Amino acid sequence: MALSETLYGKTPEQLAAVCAELGMPRFAAKQLARWLYAKHVEDPMRMSDIAAAHRAKLAERFRPAFTPPARITESADGTKKYLYRTQQGAWIESAYIPDGERATLCVSSQAGCRMGCKFCATGRQGLQHSLTTAEILNQIVSLPERDSLTNVVFMGMGEPLDNTDNVLRALEIMTSEWGFGWSPTRITLSTAGVAPELQRFLDATKVHLAVSLHNPFHEERAAIMPVERAWPIAEVAAILRRYDFTHQRRVSFEYIVMSGLNDSPRHIRELCRLLDGIKCRINLIRFHKIPGSPFFSPDDEAMIRFRDTLTAKGIQTTIRASRGRGHSGRLRTAEHRGGGERAIEHGSCTLAVKQDAMKKLIFVLLLALGAGAAQGQVKFETKSTDAVREMAIKSGKLVFIDLYASWCPPCRMMEREVFSRKDVGDFMQQRFVAAKYDTDKPTGKELMKRYGSGAIPLYLVFDTQGELLGRIQGASAPKEFMESVQKIIDGSKRR
Length: 495
Known about the structure:
Low-confidence stretches: 325-375
Number of helices: 18
């Protein structure tokens, strides 16, 4: 899908290029920046000091960037969760956490994530697409509580340093005098450790850094965080030693504690060795089990013991306290002792969501996607793959397989917005015997292992001989979905 361009999200240099292209005077770039980022006015027709002819050209060329949240939910402690739909049709979320005089927003940088961390629900979805600069900033600008916001944390969906260009552009706009004019100390970026982009980020900005560590041993970390194979945490630590974190800028390490996996004395010793020479703190996060996960939560005593031992060895360590309970997703915040900084842990990004919380998230998504919509029009079989194939042979149709998971928001979106439609149901009925398999169960696991990359939803099309004709990955709009399926069908006819 071709994406239309927005004026919001452009730097002064980019705005100057726009002015040159449209025959506007160069000084108009400063006027545009002031309207966009000081006044948050994106409609060119309201920019009163821009010539009327130029306003018309801008309005014709650029689409609006600001979109309100599709759904807002609130927990008992005041934490709010915002659900947005991207221009490409994916869903992203941000979380607003008020705490006395402080108010922190956790923002997303991608729809989904390709890092594939085993303890993370978002990682199971795979990457759908990176957000544009405008889509990142929209989470801030469209916030009803924008004027009370004190801090922003890039800890929402996605890996920020897997979308470095747009994230850095957003940070430049947020911290520049011509932009929002924020102090960099109001912002924290969280990364799993994309080493090639880390140095670029550290050189280009002065915002705080949080590194998802979770295990100091290479092989053990690689088993739960595939990023370790490409960029070992030791390499990340070596980069950080070259920078000064003794003044205003801070670096912290996020450590999800999983009982019997990464909470032993030898892990403490290795953490101390790994982080030697880096002025930092460690934030301990209790793991909460998600469906299909082999990991377990530690008890309070184990968390306290782990914290106290690290502190005794000279590493400032805190345990994150929970926020957002009773919310449609697990949202957490903690006060880092000594500095007063608040950081957010957003359940659908840096770590896993509890099973009961995920059920609530699914419920909220269903509401956001339109309460009262019709039940599914596509008839999905749940029989064995052999039985489904036999049905296809008898009916002279192809086989369509939906690989999904109950915890996967894009999967639920497809069920609600695509497979519930009569036109889609008729289209599928004419051409396929359709089946669906949960990727947390044996048949789904095997099909994903054989044909997938780990990202869901995944749709597979087979002929009656069992030959894979094509695949469709990720969520899409009804028309795009049917067009994708039709291309596979047309391709099979040419074979």
